[in-house]
Design a protein that fits this description.
Elements lengths: L3 H18 L3 H21 L2 H34 L2 H35 L6 H30 L4 E4 L4 E4 L2 H5 L2 H31 L4 H36 L1 H7 L12 E8 L4 E8 L2 H7 L9 H27 L4 H10 L3 H5 L13 H9 L5 H30 L7 H9 L3 H15 L4 E3 L3 E2 L9 H36 L20
Helix pairs in contact: 1-3, 1-18, 2-3, 2-5, 2-7, 3-4, 3-18, 4-5, 5-7, 7-8, 7-16, 7-17, 8-9, 8-15, 11-12, 11-14, 15-17
Length: 525
C-alpha cells in the first residue's frame, strides 16, 4: 500500500505550484492580444501615442511572461520527483503534447518575445506588428498543447494499455489532439485569460484616472480593454456552457458533485443556485433551484437525465468487479504471455482495469477485496462536493459580474465619459483581483473535481507517486514554496513599481504630455 501522507503531500505540492503558475499564464494570454490590437491601431493610423501604449503595457507583459516561464519550467520537474510511476505508466501519451509544446511553441514564444522588445528600431512597423501578432498566436499555441495533455488526463481517448510493456500508449494522435474535453478546456481557458488581461488594463488605467495622471493614455487603454473585455466575458459564458456539456458527457461524477446532485433527478434536471451540501446526510439543505436549466446545459435535451452521485457509485461498483477480471488476467499474462484465455479476458475488461486499481489504496492485492472493500473504493470516487459546489458558483458569479462591468465600461467609453464617475473608477480598480480568483477556482473545479483519478478511469492518483518518503516530499515542498513565494514577491514588486511609475515615469510617454487630451478635447482619438 502507498503511504497516504506521501500522496497528500505530493498532491499539495503540485497544487501549490500549479496555482502559483496559473497566476501568470492567464495574464500572458490576455495581455498579448491587447498589445496586438493597440499596435494594429498604431500601424494603421501612424499615431505615436499608440506605439507608446504598446511599449508601456509591453513592459508589464514582459515581467509577467518571465515569471510564467520560470514557474512553468520548475513545475515539470515534479513529474520525475514526485510522480515517477505516473510518468512511467502514461508518459508515452502525456509526454507527447508536452514535448511538442516545448519544441514548437515555447521556443517560438521566446524568439518572438526577443524580437518584440528589441525590434522597435530594427525592423519596420509592419514587420514588428507581425511579430506581435505571431507572439499572440504562439502563446495560445503553447496553451493548446498544455491543455491537450491535461484534457487527456480528464478524458483519455486515443490510447490503450499495452500488456507487453505494461504501459499506456498512443493509438490515435488525432483523437488525443481533437479530444472534445481538451478543445472545450482550451477555448474556455484562453477566453478567461482574455478577460483577465482586459481587467488588468482597465483597472490600472482607472487608477491613473483617479489620480488625474496620464489621462489621454488611460482613456485610450480603457476603451480597448472595455471592448476586448466585453467580447471575452461574453465568450467565457458561451464557451463555459460547452465545457459543462463536455463534463456531463465524459466526467459524470464531477458534474454530479458540482451540482451536489445526490440522486438522479427526472429529466430535465434543475440547476441549484444556492444550497448547503451535507456530505454525511447526502442531501443539500436550503436548496434554491431553477427548473430545467441543468438538464439543458448538461444534456442539450429535455428527456436525458443527469445521473446522481448514488447512481454513479453503484455503477462504479460494477466497473470495479469488471476491472478485477482484467487485473487478474493481466497478472496471469505477466507469468505467461502466451495465455490466450487471459488475453481474451483482458481484452474484454481492460477498459475497467483502472477501477480495480482503486482498491490498491486500501490493500496490496485487489483480488482479495470483500464487498465492503469494493463499496469503500466506489465511495472514494466521490470528490469533495462542498468545495466543488461553491467554487463553481463563485466562478460563475464572477463571470456574470465581468459581463456587467465591461458592458458598463463599453457604454461609458462610447460616450467618452470614462473619467466622470469616480465610483465607477474605484469599482474598476477594486475588481482587479477577481479574474485571478475566478481562474484559480476554475482550476480547482477542473483538477480537484476529477479526484481520485490522475487519469480518469485509468490511473488512481494514489498509485502515481514516486517511491519517496514523506520527509523527502516535505523538503521539496518547502523548497518549492520558498522559491515560488520569492518569485511572486518579485513579480508583485516589479508590477506595482512600474505601474506606479507609469508611461511618463518610464520615459515612454513625454512628461509634458502626461495629462494631454486628444485633439477633440476629450476621450481617445
Amino acid at each position: 500500500m502507498v503511504d497516504p501522507e506521501v500522496v497528500t503531500l505530493s498532491r499539495l505540492q503540485f497544487a501549490l505550484t500549479a496555482l502559483y503558475h496559473f497566476l501568470f499564464v492567464p495574464l500572458t494570454l490576455g495581455l498579448v492580444w491587447i498589445l496586438a490590437i493597440m499596435e494594429s491601431v498604431y500601424v494603421m493610423t501612424g499615431r505615436e501615442v499608440w506605439k507608446r501604449m504598446v511599449q508601456f503595457w509591453g513592459v508589464l507583459f514582459g515581467i509577467n511572461f518571465a515569471m510564467g516561464v520560470a514557474t512553468g519550467i520548475t513545475m515539470e520537474f515534479q513529474f520525475g520527483m514526485n510522480w515517477a510511476y505516473y510518468s512511467h505508466y502514461v508518459g508515452d501519451v502525456f509526454g507527447t503534447p508536452l514535448a511538442i509544446e516545448g519544441l514548437m511553441a515555447f521556443f517560438l514564444e521566446g524568439t518572438l518575445v526577443g524580437l518584440f522588445f528589441l525590434g522597435w528600431n530594427r525592423i519596420s512597423r509592419v514587420k514588428h506588428l507581425l511579430v506581435t501578432w505571431f507572439l499572440a498566436l504562439a502563446t495560445n499555441l503553447s496553451a493548446l498543447w498544455i491543455l491537450v495533455a491535461n484534457g487527456w488526463m480528464q478524458y483519455p481517448v486515443g490510447s490503450a494499455f499495452n500488456v507487453e510493456t505494461m504501459r499506456m500508449e498512443v493509438t490515435s494522435f488525432a483523437e488525443v489532439l481533437f479530444n472534445p474535453v481538451a478543445q472545450a478546456k482550451f477555448v474556455h481557458t484562453v477566453s478567461a485569460g482574455y478577460v483577465l488581461g482586459a481587467m488588468f488594463v482597465l483597472s490600472i488605467s482607472a487608477w491613473y484616472l483617479l489620480r488625474g495622471r496620464n489621462v489621454d493614455f488611460a482613456r485610450r487603454s480603457m476603451t480597448v480593454a472595455a471592448s476586448f473585455g466585453l467580447a471575452a466575458a461574453l465568450s467565457v459564458v458561451v464557451l463555459g456552457d460547452e465545457s459543462g456539456y463536455a463534463i456531463s458527457e465524459n466526467q459524470k461524477m464531477k458534474m454530479a458533485a458540482i451540482e451536489a446532485m445526490w440522486e438522479t433527478e427526472p429529466a430535465p434536471a434543475s440547476f441549484t443556485v444556492f444550497g448547503v451540501p451535507d456530505v454525511e446526510a447526502r442531501t443539500t439543505h436550503f436548496a434554491l433551484r431553477i427548473p430545467w436549466v441543468m438538464g439543458l446545459i448538461g444534456t442539450r435535451s429535455l428527456d436525458k437525465p443527469i445521473p446522481g452521485i448514488a447512481n454513479l457509485v453503484e455503477d462504479t461498483k460494477g466497473k470495479i468487479a469488471s476491472g478485477l477480471e482484467a487485473y487478474d488476467a493481466m497478472l496471469m499474462l505477466r507469468e505467461d504471455r502466451n495465455d490466450a484465455q487471459a488475453r481474451a479476458i483482458l481484452a474484454a475488461h481492460d477498459q475497467d482495469m483502472g477501477y480495480a486499481l482503486l482498491l490498491k489504496r486500501f490493500m496490496d492485492d485487489p483480488r482479495k477485496a470483500t464487498p465492503a472493500d469494493i463499496q469503500k473504493a466506489a465511495d472514494s470516487t466521490i470528490p469533495d462536493v462542498p468545495v466543488l459546489f461553491w467554487a463553481f458558483r463563485i466562478m460563475v458569479a464572477c463571470g456574470f459580474y465581468f459581463i456587467a462591468l465591461f458592458a458598463w465600461s463599453f457604454w461609458l467609453a462610447s460616450k467618452r465619459r470614462l473619467d466622470e464617475k469616480r465610483w465607477y473608477l474605484k469599482l474598476a480598480l477594486w475588481s482587479l483581483p477577481l479574474p485571478w480568483l475566478a481562474a484559480e477556482l476554475g482550476w480547482i473545479v477542473a483538477e480537484y473535481g476529477r479526484q481520485p483519478w490522475a487519469i480518469e478511469g485509468i490511473l488512481p492518483t494514489a498509485l502515481g507517486v514516486s517511491s519517496v518518503t514523506a520527509g523527502q516530499v516535505w523538503i521539496s515542498l518547502g523548497g518549492f514554496v520558498l522559491f515560488y513565494t520569492v518569485l511572486a514577491a518579485i513579480d508583485a514588486t516589479l508590477m506595482v513599481r512600474y505601474a506606479r511609475r507609469g508611461p511618463d515615469g518610464l520615459g515612454i510617454w513625454p512628461a509634458a504630455d502626461a495629462n494631454s487630451l486628444s485633439p477633440a478635447g476629450k476621450g481617445p482619438g
